[in-house]
UniProtKB/TrEMBL annotation:
Name used for this protein in its record: Radical SAM domain protein
PANTHER family xrefs: ANAEROBIC MAGNESIUM-PROTOPORPHYRIN IX MONOMETHYL ESTER CYCLASE-RELATED, BLL1977 PROTEIN
Organism field: Desulfatibacillum aliphaticivorans
Regions that span the bilayer: none
Cofactor: [4Fe-4S] cluster
InterPro entries the UniProt entry points to: BchE-like, Cobalamin-bd, Cobalamin-bd_sf, Elp3/MiaA/NifB-like_rSAM, Methyltransferase_Class_B, rSAM, rSAM_horseshoe, rSAM_sf
Pfam families xref list: B12-binding, Radical_SAM
Domain of life of the organism encoding this protein: Bacteria
Length: 533
């Protein structure tokens, strides 16, 4: 293994219902290993179902020396299980975990999961640059900053590494290692970052601690170069995943003007804060393709906003939504249920304010992740943690209670909102194809039905499972495609026409193709440009 190393980076399962983008953090990690001289593969289990046999086969083919996985809190249990499976398959593999969850739950992870050898804390790229040659030589890592690891039978912490100041020094994310055809078939936006860092102090968020309170920027040229590359790869929608893209209005305008100067045409969205919205900047964003901005408003009660150190006012929220509507951007507002001190009155305030905004909005339940102020200083808040089952920390169910709001109270509150949405959706489904819906609403219904079928095809690997083509059809793509549709419809029990409406565009858009020929012909996902089949 001297001076040469193979590294497998795991993209752990993540619910497709949560609309995952191609995993950006995984791609930055993979790129860092590549830049350090390793041969790297990404084992992606986001758009392909996971089982131990599958990773056994992948490891048999690639024979990695190192396997690493990132995770957020919700996906941590599955990521840890995958690492455990890896160690059972090949005990000689060196295993690493990183990401926001284990960065703030490192000792507990190493104590509970003996299969994990090492944890990379916080931003990992420079740490990876240092550990890669050491691992390739079989040397120990206890002198590398930014790790918590096992050494001589003990858990050793090597200290925290400073944040990376020159983000332009980072390699471009290694998306070429992802199954891009699957992600493009899924149809969700691809994410980029233009900066790292968050100056705000929200007690329920990890941003400030994970990436620092001082915002660090990538150069405008690098950002738009990456956008251009993504468009060349065939993506048509991009989401700017910065904690706060609009923190620096001057720089937002510089990015937008560079997009205009290059004549790039694409749809995009971004996260923002209501106290950073201004009409001139948002109008320029709209001019360059931004059609949706998401605001975390969290509560319709001003005292609650102060308690959680959100740093915004309800008046600013109303103004931001108004600006979006004036310039033609769709505003989306997110509210949180179960914040410290939540009462029936504060929830009612949120419900009234959300409706008053007259914007698309939704609710999430508070999930106090490791590393958040609210979890680390729990005794200071009116809050009780109900479970430490991290798989339940998906913000779709209550994992806390306050003195006045029980889990069932919170469920009932969100349930009333969801019932309104379900009734509206039922009306649209009943009107589908009958000429009573608007064309836009019919498209929404059809699109939602297709999404469910697409999820199943990806999660159950149905192109692979149903892809074998009879020899007499292999040279006739249209008949081979019809055979695939029949096979998937038969396997899933889904309506044949619906499966056809999903699978035919896969072929027409180049996401799937016929490989080999004769008796061995089969359908397969198209490899990335420049990547071997």
């Amino acid at each position: 293994m001297e001076n040469y190393m193979r590294v497998a980076v795991i993209a752990p399962p993540y619910p497709l219902e949560e609309a995952p983008a191609p995993p950006l953090g995984v791609c930055y990690v993979a790129a860092a290993f590549e830049q350090a001289g390793a041969e790297v593969r990404i084992f992606d289990f986001v758009v392909s179902g996971y089982n131990k046999e599958k990773i056994q086969k992948a490891m048999d083919e690639f024979k990695p020396h190192v396997v690493g996985s990132t995770s957020v809190t919700m996906s941590f249990p599955q990521a840890a299980q995958i690492i455990t499976d890896v160690k059972e398959i090949d005990p000689s593999v060196y295993t690493i975990m990183g990401g926001p969850h284990v960065s703030f739950w490192a000792h507990e992870t190493l104590e509970k999961f003996p299969a994990v050898d090492c944890i990379v804390i916080g931003e990992g790229e420079q740490t990876i640059e240092e550990i890669t040659p050491l691992l390739a030589k079989g040397e120990t890592l206890e002198n590398v900053t930014g790790l918590i690891l096992r050494h001589n039978g003990e858990i050793v912490e090597t200290g925290h590494r400073d944040f990376i100041q020159d983000l332009d020094s980072l390699p471009m994310p290694a998306r070429h290692l992802l199954p891009l055809s699957r992600y493009k078939a899924l149809g969700f936006p691809v994410s980029i970052i233009t900066s790292r860092g968050c100056p705000n102090k929200c007690i329920f968020c990890l941003g400030r601690r994970m990436v620092g309170h001082k915002v660090r920027y990538r150069s405008v040229k690098k950002v738009v170069d990456e956008i251009e590359t993504l468009l060349e790869l065939g993506f048509t929608r991009i989401n700017v995943a910065d904690d706060l893209f609009t923190s620096n209005k001057k720089r937002v305008r510089e990015v937008c003007n560079e997009i205009k100067n290059r004549g790039l045409k694409f749809g995009w969205s971004a996260f923002s804060r209501v106290n950073t919205a201004d009409k001139e900047t948002f109008a320029l964003m709209r001019e360059t393709g931004c059609d949706c901005v998401s605001f975390g408003i969290e509560s319709g009660n001003q005292d609650m906003l102060k308690r959680v150190k959100k740093g915004i006012t309800l008046a600013q929220a109303e103004k931001a939504v108004k600006i979006c509507k004036e310039v033609g951007i769709l505003p989306h507002a997110s509210f949180m249920v179960g914040l410290p001190g939540e009462t029936h009155e504060t929830m009612a305030d949120s419900a009234r304010f959300a409706k008053k905004l007259d914007a698309i909005y939704g609710y999430h339940f508070l999930a106090p992740f490791p590393g958040t102020t609210v979890l680390e200083n729990l005794d200071e808040y009116d809050l009780e943690i109900l479970t430490d089952d991290w798989s339940l920390y998906d913000a779709n169910r209550p994992v806390v209670r306050t003195s006045q709001v029980s889990p069932q109270d919170a469920i009932d509150f969100v349930g009333r909102f969801e019932k309104e949405c379900e009734e509206e959706w039922k009306r649209l489904e009943e009107g589908f194809g009958k000429g009573v819906n608007s064309p836009e609403d019919d498209l929404r219904v059809e699109g939602t039905r297709k999404v469910g079928g697409t999820f199943q095809i990806l999660e159950e690997d149905l192109v692979e499972q149903c892809g074998a083509i009879p020899a007499d059809l292999a040279k006739i793509p249209e008949k081979a495609l019809s055979f695939l549709v029949d096979a998937i419809a038969g396997r899933t029990g889904r309506d044949h026409a619906m499966v056809e409406s999903i699978v035919v565009p896969f072929y027409k858009n180049g996401h799937i193709r016929i490989v080999n020929g004769g008796d061995d012909a089969c359908w397969a996902w198209t490899p990335n440009p420049g990547k071997a089949a």
